[in-house]
């Protein structure tokens, strides 16, 4: 039998079209895409330095462990590589308004934006919200420095928004009396919402009713930990498509939001969330390291290859690592 090569059906990996390679490479870790794939050959390097791997950027796990300065540089590098085709961005802990502005400046195709635990301000959100007009899902959970003004700006400019996650931590709202102003901002500017998660936000029954009144397409309302909200079961039944989770806690604070809520029904057994302050501290520590690179190559090396156009041989070779 003729071999695959002899029959002409064999195709070299480096001859695959960039779009196909990009789909394959997205199954690799961030480290592998940035430090291993570019070493293989020129065609693979062109794929990972171009937009093919970066239309959807999810570095939540990596960003949770890196220093703010390193995170800012990584976000800017990956967004630059996307060349305006970025559709999804998931990052934990942006350290300043500058990074948020950079994201907004490159958001013409952006649909999903998840920025939990980010240090962004009301003023910067108000300034750049108009540039986020294509966003359909937004996660501003645990963002302590924003409030109703930011949400109102998002609602006025992001007319396609159907999902909002604004989950807080009890320790972050302990000094607040009420956050009904956020509920009112959501209700008056986001009529197309289908999913709204405001767990532990200090809203009242009035705020929740305002949302239900003005968001007729709502399918999921997560009000776990919103102890001041009292919704009668008979009243909820009037909304045939609506699923309400909370205000009592059905499992634990670490649920991941909409993806998990579908597994719970109104008849689920409730149990109190066992809040242990000592355990929470580990979740809110400052960033620990520059990420979990397993080899010695630094982000500076990756950036240098990208911006300086480092050339590769056609075959794999030992990459010069930083000391």
TrEMBL record:
InterPro entries in the cross-refs: F-box_dom, LRR_dom_sf
Protein name as it appears in the record: F-box protein FBW2
Sequence ranges assigned to domain F-box in this UniProt record: 21-59
Organism whose genome encodes this protein: Hibiscus syriacus (Rose of Sharon)
Pfam families attached to this UniProt entry: F-box-like (PF12937)
